[in-house]
């Protein structure tokens, strides 16, 4: 069978086009959900705990979907059934979300919407690893970045466009809670989400499991190193029980400490999460000891403990990168309306003008990311994927921190250009580096596990940023963005510990 064939530009275009729709949903969520929460009565300090649904959903859903898609093959293919099912559910959630009558309904819809988006999104990452040879993977993930940026540009700006181009009000009518411009944006997003994913489902044909296996065998033969399945490691049982006891005890002790200090309730998300992870490890160890190893939980947790070295190193980079991004997504509206526009009253036109401008700023960084996406593979060719990613993260960190300095809303565009470079790189370079270190038959589950290191910093941000704002920053949301800038620069430094085992430069 030989190596995977090189695909044409339009083949890569078609297989990535679904991300246009996925990002429509994701961008509408990021730019408007905090606004919806505040409109329905949430205090700025409570917004992080309301957002906790999104990362928790990803933590649970992505490895499950990855594991299932690795083992799926039917008339639609391996990954495509999940693209379509997730798109249908997400489109329905986008229609319902802006019609939420009260805050708890909106929080519940965020959970459902994020779960559905994750069902569609996770297999798309594995899809590139399935379909493209090593030398085209950077281009493949860059194409995804282009569609992510393009979709986000349009989706983030929709409320502003409806208000300023079509004179649709950005203030809720009497008896309503959500502005008409926001509602229409979500309705259009639902239609685009489903249509774009359908395009990829119809226009792309997947390799069969037999073909993928033959490609993997050829790679092993050429490189002389087998990507072994290490799930049967002799010390696996000991590691399950050891890690399980350690995390369970740590989580319980931290919970007791928080209770004694009477600190904020959202901090329990972190302590209970640590304890829950320890309990899952103990359950997995118990199942393994009983010989019940042919189930999804044991397989996923075994793969977690046996991650390739490159994946462990990238986990550190991802942690600091996504902590920074989540601080932006949670606090951009609150920070910019209060720090730049000088108001926190969500019923005023000034606040809603500021919230609309946040959508435009999100459009700017996503639009710039779409343009930069095609430049990153070129820069990586002349330097390396690691150097390209480090430079991008530094620019992103400086961009986030500079929001504190600029008081003119238009100058914030400069800040967002830096964020756009980082965003383009975060969506492509780590995945291009990662896929070369993964066995083909576990591409989906490892992409799902890799999402842990996106989700964990998000949970941490949602758990502690509100606490730090109240305790140390006087409730000023702008400091969350400054902290995010510092976190992204730390991420840039940690890039240099990563071993890019499949770097094209090593093969020259």
Describe the model.
The structure is a single chain. By secondary structure, this protein is mainly alpha-helical. It folds into 2 domains: 9-222 and 306-503, Growth Hormone, Chain: A (Up-down Bundle), CATH 1.20.1250; 236-302. 74% of the residues lie in helices and 0% in strands. It has 21 helices and no strands. It has helices at residues 9-16, 18-39, 47-51, 53-70, 80-96, 103-131, 134-166, 180-203, 209-223, 236-261, 267-289, 296-305, 309-339, 349-372, 376-382, 385-401, 412-426, 429-435, 443-450, 452-472, 478-494. α13 packs parallel to α20 (452-472) and α16 packs antiparallel against α17. The two termini are 23 Å apart.
Find the count of extended strands (DSSP E, 2+ residues): 0
Largest sheet: none
CATH A-level architecture of the largest domain: Up-down Bundle
Instruction: Determine Rg (CA atoms, Å).
Output: 22 Å
User: How many separate domains make up the residues?
Assistant: 2
Fraction of residues in helices? over 70%
**Distance, first to last CA:** 23 Å
The quaternary state of the protein chains shown equals single chain
Give me the CATH superfamily of the largest domain. MFS general substrate transporter like domains
Average pLDDT, all residues: 82
């Amino acid at each position: 069978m030989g190596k995977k064939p090189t695909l044409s530009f339009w083949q890569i275009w078609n297989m990535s086009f679904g991300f246009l729709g996925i990002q429509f949903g994701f961008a509408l969520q990021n730019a408007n959900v905090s606004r919806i929460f505040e409109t329905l009565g949430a205090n700025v300090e409570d917004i992080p705990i309301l957002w906790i649904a999104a990362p928790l959903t990803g933590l649970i859903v992505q490895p499950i979907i990855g594991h299932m898609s690795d083992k799926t093959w039917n008339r639609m293919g391996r990954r495509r059934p999940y693209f379509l099912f997730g798109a249908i559910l997400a489109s329905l959630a986008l229609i319902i979300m802006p019609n939420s009558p009260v805050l708890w309904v909106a929080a519940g819809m965020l959970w459902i919407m994020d779960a559905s988006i994750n069902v569609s999104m996770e297999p798309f990452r594995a899809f590139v690893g399935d379909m493209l040879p090593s030398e085209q993977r950077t281009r493949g993930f860059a194409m995804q970045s282009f569609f992510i940026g393009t979709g986000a540009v349009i989706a983030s700006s929709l409320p502003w466009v409806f208000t300023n181009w079509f004179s649709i009000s950005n203030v809720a009518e009497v008896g309503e809670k959500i502005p008409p411009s926001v509602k229409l944006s979500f309705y259009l997003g639902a239609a685009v989400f489903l249509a774009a994913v359908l395009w990829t489902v119809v226009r792309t044909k997947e390799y069969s499991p037999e073909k993928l296996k033959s490609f993997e065998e050829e790679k092993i033969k050429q490189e002389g190193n087998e990507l072994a399945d290490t799930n049967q490691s002799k010390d696996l049982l000991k590691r399950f029980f050891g890690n399980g006891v350690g995390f369970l005890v740590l989580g319980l002790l931290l919970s007791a400490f928080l209770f004694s200090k009477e600190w904020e309730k959202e901090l329990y998300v972190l302590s209970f999460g640590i304890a829950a992870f320890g309990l899952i490890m103990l359950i997995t160890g118990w199942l393994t000891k009983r010989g019940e190893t042919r189930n999804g939980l044991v397989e996923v947790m075994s793969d977690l403990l046996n991650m390739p070295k490159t994946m462990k190193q990238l986990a550190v980079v991802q942690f600091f990168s996504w902590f920074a991004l989540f601080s932006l997504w949670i606090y951009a509206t609150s920070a910019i309306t209060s720090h730049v526009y000088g108001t926190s009253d969500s019923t005023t036109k000034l606040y809603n003008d500021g919230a609309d401008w946040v959508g435009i700023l999100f459009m700017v960084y996503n639009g710039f990311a779409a343009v930069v996406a095609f430049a990153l593979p070129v820069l990586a060719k002349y330097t390396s994927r690691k150097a390209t990613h480090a430079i991008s993260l530094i620019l992103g960190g400086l961009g986030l921190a500079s929001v504190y300095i600029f008081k003119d809303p238009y100058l914030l565009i400069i800040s967002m250009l830096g964020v756009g470079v980082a965003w383009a790189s975060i969506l492509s370079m780590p995945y291009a580096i990662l896929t070369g270190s993964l066995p083909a038959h576990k591409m989906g589950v490892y992409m799902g596990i890799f999402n842990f290191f996106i989700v964990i910093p998000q949970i941490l941000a949602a758990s502690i940023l509100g606490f730090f704002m109240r305790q140390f920053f006087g409730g000023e949301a702008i400091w969350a963005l400054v902290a995010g800038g510092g976190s992204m620069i730390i991420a840039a430094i940690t890039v240099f510990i990563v071993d890019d085992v499949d770097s094209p430069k090593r093969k020259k």
